Amino acid sequence: MTIRAAGTEDVPTVLALWKVSRTTHATTPDTRESLERLLAHDPLALLVAEDGSGVVGTLIAAWDGWRGDMYRLAVRPEARRRGIALALVRAGEARLRECGAARVTALVGRGDEPAETLWRAAGYALDPAMERFVRNL
Fold first, then answer.
1. Which of 18, 22, 57, 132 could form a disulfide with 49 if both were Cys (CB 3.0 to 4.6 A apart)?
2. What is the pLDDT of residue 74?
3. Measured between alpha carbons, how far is 48 from 59 in angstroms, rounded to an integer?
C-alpha cells in the first residue's frame, strides 16, 4: 500500500469511494467542485491510500496556518481492518507536523462508534471542553 497526495485526476475515484463508505454522520455534500476547490487551495491536503486494486482510503489533513484538522477518513468497506485508516492518520500527522501544526483536531461524528474506536486507538482523546458549532452556507 502507498499513501500519496491526491490530484484532480483522483476526484471521481475519491467521490465514488466516499459514496460507498459514507456513514450517516457525514452530512456535508460531496461534490467535484468542493474537492477541486480544496486541491486548488491546498494541493497536499487530500491523501489517498492505494493498493493493487486502486484507491482504498482517503483522509483530508488540512492546515489553515494555525491548526491542523483531519477529516473525511474513509476506507472501502472490503478493505477495512487492514491498517489502512491508521496508516492514513499517521501520514496526515506527518504532513501536518511538516506544516508546523502543534495540535491536530480530528472531526468525528458523535456516536459514530467505529470512527471513535479508530481515533482512540490512534491515540486521540475526546475533548470534553470543546463543542463545535456549525452552519451550512
1. 57
2. 95
3. 7
Domains and CATH numbers, the chain: 2-121 (3.40.630.30)
The 10s digit of each residue's pLDDT in 81-119 is 999 999 999 999 999 999 999 999 999 888 889 899 999
Q: Letter for the amino acid at 92?
A: G
Mean of the pLDDT values across residues 73-77?
95
Q: What is the rounded radius of gyration, in angstroms, for the C-alpha atoms of the chain?
A: 14
Determine the pLDDT at residue 133.
Answer: 78
Q: How far, in Å, are 2, 10, 16, 27, 92 from residue 7 at the CA level?
A: 15, 5, 15, 24, 16
For residue 115, give the C-alpha cell. 470512527
Beta carbons of 67 and 105 less than 8 angstroms apart = yes
